[in-house]
Design brief:
alpha/beta; Methyltransferase, Cobalt-precorrin-4 Transmethylase, Domain 2; Cobalt-precorrin-4 Transmethylase, domain 1; 12 strands; single chain
């Protein structure tokens, strides 16, 4: 997202570059996405969280790129640094998803060596399968049962050293992962998981929103409402919504009446902000609808959104326009940690 710096603004005569906030994996440098790597490759300046991000990921930046570790900086210092660099470079990266580039480098590497790929065509952009080599067997799974998919994967593992099951988001989230891998384990077939970018994260990124805010909410609930798949006891939306935290509601756009009922039962006000993102990160197909508990269903109906949408209810929505925000302690000048002494 592009924003106008509020501190130390660059002279109006200087064109401002774009500052990108990029998610990196928790340790493995290959868990950065292709888009993140591409941005790094063109960056003039990179600010990375050295206490959390493996410095190896900065090696994707070009020679001559200015790389700065932020672990000893306050929030103001980081904002000032990013604003300053945006006056000098077209692309500035702050290391922190349908779009083929939102596959990770590790995912791309595996696809590049795959002999067979089974992808979820109803959810995954087929363009991502183009990373597979010529001659690779590519099969769309949208018309297959779980047993057929497991059998196909087992059959291909007898023919190829690398077989990929390509899924939307993260395989461990509503991905039938355990159901699909149990038969493989029973057959003695080795398997492993490469984490992916969830549509929950992609949706909030598309809208420029944060899931957590100091003194507002520090918790995120990923859930769905009951449809043909029942919910376990104690996990009805009203019970979860009572926590008044960020709710990312999957697979439920056709059940907006149940979402509204659950939020109201938990005491959420009619003016509670709501966000719906259709096909988050899909090039040319992504749509963002904002509203409140009182009108979000009607807004979605008017927009014709009836599938592949993330519904978010959160007290953090719209925080970019609030007059005041509580500070993040980690970056507060008065807060001491092992990389920086308090200065205020």
């Amino acid at each position: 997202m592009t924003s106008t710096p509020t501190s130390n603004p660059s002279p109006a005569s200087l064109p401002l570059g774009k500052v990108w906030f990029v998610g990196a994996g928790p340790g493995d440098p290959e868990l950065i996405t292709l888009k993140g790597q591409r941005l790094l490759a063109h960056a003039g300046a990179v600010l990375f969280a050295g206490s959390l991000v493996d410095q190896a990921v900065t090696l994707y930046a070009p020679a001559g790129c200015l790389v700065r570790d932020s672990k000893d900086m306050t929030l103001e210092q980081m904002s000032d640094w990013l604003a300053e660099q945006s006056a000098r470079h077209a692309t500035v990266v702050r290391l922190q998803t349908g779009d083929p580039e939102l596959i990770t480098l590790k995912g791309q590497r595996l696809l590049a060596h795959a002999g067979a790929v089974l992808f979820a065509g109803s959810l995954v952009d087929q363009a991502v399968t183009l990373y597979a080599p010529a001659g690779c067997l590519v099969r769309d799974s949208k018309d297959m049962t779980l047993e057929q998919m497991s059998d196909w994967l087992a059959e291909q593992s007898a023919r190829h050293a690398t077989v990929v099951r390509l899924q939307t988001g993260d395989p461990g989230l509503y991905g039938a992962l355990i159901e699909m891998t149990r038969p493989l384990t029973a057959l003695g077939i080795d398997w492993a998981v490469v984490p992916g970018v969830s549509s929950a994260m992609a949706s909030m990124a598309a809208a420029g929103e944060s899931m957590t805010l100091p003194e507002v909410t520090q918790s995120v609930i990923l859930t769905r409402v009951e449809g043909r798949t029942p919910m376990p006891e104690g996990e009805d939306l009203a019970a979860l919504a009572a926590h008044r935290t960020t709710l990312c509601i999957f697979l439920s756009i056709t059940l907006m009446h149940k979402i509204e009922a659950g939020l109201r039962a938990a005491g959420w006000p009619e003016d509670a902000p709501m966000l719906v993102v259709h096909k988050a990160s899909w090039p040319g197909q992504e749509r963002i609808v904002r509203g409140t508990l009182a009108d979000i269903k009607q807004r979605c109906r008017e927009a014709g959104i009836v599938s592949q949408a993330m519904v978010v209810a959160s007290p953090t929505l719209g925080a970019a326009d609030w007059e005041t925000l509580a500070r993040s302690k980690l970056y507060d000048p008065s807060f001491t940690h092992r990389f920086r002494k308090a200065t205020a």
